[in-house]
Amino acid sequence: MGNREDLLAGAKRCLVEKGYTRTTARDVAKASGVSLAAIGYHFKSKEALLNEALFEVMREWGEELAATLSAEVEPGADRLERFAVVWDRVLESFARLRPLWVTQLELLGQVEHLPEVREQLAAANRDAQEGLAELFGGEPGAGPEDARLTGALYQALLTGFLSQWLLDPERALSGREVAAALRLVTA
């Protein structure tokens, strides 16, 4: 790898270990084994480097999460059973990908000051909503508006449950418990 690639790899490690706002240019230089001046040469600023590293990590993370969540569900499962199985996979991803989830939540509090990150997160959010609507099994033949609505609901659930899980993972609701709660509120 060259210096540019080493810097990106180092920045990714720092994002996972320290988060976006706590990572310094010195941290990245040390993690990458490249001089501090190389950041300016290759990326112009620490923020540009972190943004590029973040967008790469988000792409990689999205691909891994999609592969994990799209594993087959038992044939004949009804909508809520399917939801419970998929939701349990979401919870597993919280534990396995915790540093990336934490970084994503950290950035939500900073988007007012990071317009480029805000644009990227908004685009990723739209893609995630579309994918979640498909993943959780939208109605066959449903239109784009139905997919948008259900995807936005699943995204809101995911973000809310993620926040709860980060605070108290032992009390996080399982897929079966979330399905039971949905039954209660829709009865």
Terminal CA distance reads 57 Å
What structural class should be given to the helix and strand makeup?
mainly alpha
Order of helices and strands: HHHHHHHHH
- Silhouette: elongated
Radius of gyration: 19 Å
Number of helices: 9
> What can be said about the biggest beta sheet?
none
Work out the strand percent.
under 5%
Q: What is the average of the pLDDT values?
A: 86
Q: Which parts are unreliable, with pLDDT below 50 for 5 consecutive residues or more?
A: none
- Count of DSSP strands: 0
- What portion of residues is helical? over 70%
Report what the structure shows.
The chain is an all-alpha fold and 187 residues long. It has helices spanning 3-18, 25-32, 36-43, 46-69, 79-96, 98-108, 115-135, 144-167, 175-186.
Keywords:
187 residues; mainly alpha
Quick structural overview:
The chain is an all-alpha fold. 76% of the residues lie in helices and 0% in strands.
